[in-house]
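Notebook entry, structure prediction.
Reason for the run: the old model in the group folder had no record of what sequence produced it. Starting over properly, with the input documented here first.
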Amino acid sequence: MSSKAKPEAKVAVLKGQEAEDKVLEYVKKMNRPYGAVDVAANLKGAVPKTATQKILVALAEKGDLVQKTYGKTTFFVYNQAKIECMPMEKISELKQELSTIEDENKLLTAEMKTLTTELAKLKASPTDQEIDSQIASVEAAISQAAATLEPLRSGAPPISPEELEQVYADWTKWRPEWIRRRKVFMTFWQLATDALPPQDAKSLEEDLGIELDTPEHTALEQGPLCTQPQTNSLKRKRL
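New structure, fully documented this time:
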């Protein structure tokens, strides 16, 4: 069973001077044009609409409000001449305060721009961890290069152009043969193990001593040495 909504508390209806003071207080506080219907509605019924109209007209006759008529609608606004004006000294003080705040704001804006630029540079710079990683990578490359140069530094004879030519000739001759044989083997191996479960196929592979390509072999096949056009990349450049 749904609970019943609690009835709203009734607003006490004002009369006489209390009603007039309430209307004047509201119009002065809002300081904008209102009609009698709007004032009565905004006061939540504290002053009836008919009484509100009479009070507004009476206040306008006293000079507390200014009455304006637009077509068939009448608006009332608080008499601006009765609003307390700010002294010129106070206005000058506020203008000076505003100027000071604007100057401070300009300085803070410039400082923020500088800090933002510095922050962007810091974000673009590598972290300590990244620098350590780069240093380690460079040191490893240096060590590898030094190890490569060590035989030459120890007096070992370099590979002759004829030996390089022979290596390239053997590479050109036997690599296509190896590719062909691997393709034939993979075809027959797939036919032989197609009906076997993967575990049985693996056991058969181990029993026969078959060694498939390792990840290193796969990486070599996908590297530039095997994927680039067959040119003699082993030849030395002659100066």
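Summary: The longest helix spans residues 88-124.
The old model has been moved to the deprecated folder.
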